[in-house]
Structure formats: structure tokens, C-alpha cells
């Protein structure tokens, strides 16, 4: 799969942009685990123009994580174009436009998935950005605003006509948020539309290597994007890539110790990037979601202690005890 001149190889697996998740450290770990492309956290166009420090920090790209995209969101055409020009100075491989975020504080203000209710403005934003930057421009969006307005097949054509180089489709409407099942049939309909010439990347409910294989084989998508399933489990990219290349059961799985080491690395790098308080606060989402801790008997008190820990040493001591517990229970 190629996005303009960026070759991501055959059947690429991509890390989805996620606010408070896909910071520089996590992106690099996912890249090392096998992710073929990474995306920044959501970058507010308005905040970027105002030079808000917490937003400008999101533009930092580690050369080792490339190719990577900076994802912008906003509703004003001029602001989005100006923000894209600023983002381009950070030298991303791609600028991605967020037309899919469903949360009220974004979509409710007419940005993200909110633009699914204002397609002319959406197209104007794309037109303005494509004509103003020299890197490929891509879009991530949803099927439509609600069940009665699943416009993605026609919309994808319109976005392509405005010059985007790839489209990622989350298989839900905005109204669904993250409930119900992702509709991959509609994603497949976009891919199989003979008018579509750009790569179509599918996103939604892919949580296992078998599911990734099935999406490629059944719907013919060019790429599969992994979001929530990667939180607290960056090794999912290793399992998916190995399964796609070598086949199920034909590769050596990462050891339990390797996985705990990745979690420790996330904690350390999150703290180094800011400070102990903010670093631990940031990584708690990964700890809460990690499959490492699922199914452990009577784990609730330990989970509470882990999520209340305030220092790296405290967290590491808890993790060491959990790792020892799991090793002895084998």
C-alpha cells in the first residue's frame, strides 16, 4: 500500500490517533512492535495557532517512528489551513484531518465527526489544506452522522476528488460513538467502489490477529488501523504482523516478561517526558486497559493500588509482584 510516495508494504497495520494515548513514546514502542505507521494525538487547529505549549508538544516526531502523521481537527477553514502550514514545519510524513472524533466537546462544536453534518465545509477544509501543504493529506472519518445518514460511499469519492491521498473509515456513525458493532460491509463498499483509486483503511473492532487477517481477506481493504485494542498492549502489532507474514502459530510469541518490560518502559518514558505526577496520570489509562491484568483472581485491591500509585518505584514494585504471581500460576 502506498500513500502517494510513502510505501507501507503489503497489508499494513496502523496505530490510530488517540487523545491522551498516542504520545511520542507509545508511538515509538508500537512502531518497534510492528506498526507500519503512527499518528499523533489530536491536534487542535485553534490551539496550535495560539501556540499553546501542550498542543505544540504534540508535533514532536521521533525519526525512528516514521512514517508518521500529524492529525488536525477544527471547524474553521482558515484556521485549519493555517494550522496545517504550522504542522508541516514539524516535518510529518502526512497531515491527517480528523473528521471522525465523536466526543461532544469536539463534534458538538462542529469539528471532528460534527463535519459529517456539513459536507460542503468539510470539502472546503480539505481543498484548502491540500492546496497549501506539500505533504500528502489524508482523512479519517466515520460512516455518517447517524443511522439515517450513512453517506460514506459518496463522501469518500468527494474527498478523493478534493485531493486526499488515503481515507481511513471507522465503521460506526457518530451517533453510535463506540457502541454496537463496526459495519465493515460499508467500509468494503467504499473499497470496492470502482471510482476509488486511493487506499482505503478500515478501523473498528479489530482486536486479534485473526480479525486483522479476516478484514484484509474479506473486505479487500488496503490497511487496517488499530485503536483501543492497542491501549496497554502495544505488542498487538507484533502478533498481527507476525500472523500476517508467517501465519497463525508459526512465530514465537513475546514472553510475559517482555510484555511487562514494555509496560515499565512506558511508565519511565511517560515520567521522563513530563514529571512523576503527570507522567503516571497519563499512563494510568494504559494500565487500566492492559490485558496483562485481566482474569487474575481477586485482583481488584491490586488494581486499585496500581491506579493510585504516585511514584515510579511504587508502580514497579506492584508490577513485579503481579509478574511473579503470573509466573507462579503457570
Spans of 5+ residues with little confidence (pLDDT < 50)? none
CA-based shape: globular
What number is the mean pLDDT? 96
Class per helix and strand makeup: alpha/beta
The strand line-up of the biggest sheet is: 3-10-9-8-7-6-5-4
Secondary structure: helix percent: 40-55%
How far apart are the first and last residues' alpha carbons, in Å?
41 Å
Strand % is 5-15%
Radius of gyration (CA) equals: 20 Å
Topology order in helix (H) and strand (E) letters: EEEHEHHEHEHHEHEHEHEHHHHH
Describe the biggest sheet?
A: 8 strands, parallel
Number of strands: 10
Q: What does this protein structure show overall?
A:
This protein has an eight-stranded parallel sheet. The chain has a two-stranded antiparallel sheet with strand order 1-2. With 330 residues, it is α/β, with parallel strands linked by helices. Helix 11 packs antiparallel against helix 12 (276-289) and helix 11 (256-273) packs antiparallel against helix 14 (312-328). The protein has 14 helices and ten strands. 44% of the residues lie in helices and 13% in strands. The radius of gyration is 20 Å and the shape is globular.
Give a topology summary.
Layout: E1 2-3, E2 6-7, E3 13-15, H1 24-33, E4 38-44, H2 45-49, H3 53-56, E5 68-73, H4 77-88, E6 94-99, H5 104-107, H6 119-130, E7 137-142, H7 152-161, E8 167-170, H8 184-191, E9 200-203, H9 209-219, E10 223-226, H10 236-246, H11 256-273, H12 276-289, H13 300-308, H14 312-328
Parallel strand pairs: 3-10, 4-5, 5-6, 6-7, 7-8, 8-9, 9-10
Antiparallel strand pairs: 1-2
Helix pairs in contact: 4-6, 7-8, 9-10, 11-12, 11-14
Amino acid at each position: 500500500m502506498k500513500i502517494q510516495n510513502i510505501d507501507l508494504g503489503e497489508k499494513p497495520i496502523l496505530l490510530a490517533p488517540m487523545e491522551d494515548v498516542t504520545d511520542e513514546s507509545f508511538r515509538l514502542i508500537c512502531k518497534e512492535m510492528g506498526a507500519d505507521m503512527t499518528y499523533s494525538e489530536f491536534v487542535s487547529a485553534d490551539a496550535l495557532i495560539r501556540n499553546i505549549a501542550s498542543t505544540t508538544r504534540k508535533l514532536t516526531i521521533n525519526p525512528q517512528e516514521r512514517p508518521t502523521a500529524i492529525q488536525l481537527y477544527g471547524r474553521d477553514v482558515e484556521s485549519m489551513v493555517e494550522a496545517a502550514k504550522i504542522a508541516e514545519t514539524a516535518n510529518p510524513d502526512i497531515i491527517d484531518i480528523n473528521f471522525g472524533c465523536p466526543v461532544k466537546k469536539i463534534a458538538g462544536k462542529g469539528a471532528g465527526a460534527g463535519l459529517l453534518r456539513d459536507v460542503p465545509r468539510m470539502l472546503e477544509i480539505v481543498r484548502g489544506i491540500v492546496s497549501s501543504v506539500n505533504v500528502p493529506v489524508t482523512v479519517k472519518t466515520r460512516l455518517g452522522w447517524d443511522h439515517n445518514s450513512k453517506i460514506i460511499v459518496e463522501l469518500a469519492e468527494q474527498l478523493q476528488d478534493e485531493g486526499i491521498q488515503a481515507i481511513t473509515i471507522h465503521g460506526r456513525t457518530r451517533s453510535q460513538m463506540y457502541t454496537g458493532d463496526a459495519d465493515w460491509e460499508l467500509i468494503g463498499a467504499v473499497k470496492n467502489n470502482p471510482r476509488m483509486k486511493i487506499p482505503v483503511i478500515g478501523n473498528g473492532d479489530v482486536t486479534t490477529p485473526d480479525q486483522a487477517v479476516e478484514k484484509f481477506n474479506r473486505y479487500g481493504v488496503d490497511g487496517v488501523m488499530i485503536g483501543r485494542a492497542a491501549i496497554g498492549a502495544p505488542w498487538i502489532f507484533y502478533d498481527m504482523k507476525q500472523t500476517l507474514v508467517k501465519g497463525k502459530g508459526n512465530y514465537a510469541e513475546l514472553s510475559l516478561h517482555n510484555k511487562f518490560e514494555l509496560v515499565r518502559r512506558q511508565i519511565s518514558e511517560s515520567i521522563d517526558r513530563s514529571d512523576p505526577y503527570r507522567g503516571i496520570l497519563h499512563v494510568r489509562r494504559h494500565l487500566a486497559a492492559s490485558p496483562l491484568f485481566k482474569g487474575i483472581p481477586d485482583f481488584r485491591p491490586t488494581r486499585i493500588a496500581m491506579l493510585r500509585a504516585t511514584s515510579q518505584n511504587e508502580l514497579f514494585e506492584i508490577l513485579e509482584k503481579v509478574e511473579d504471581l503470573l509466573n507462579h500460576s503457570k
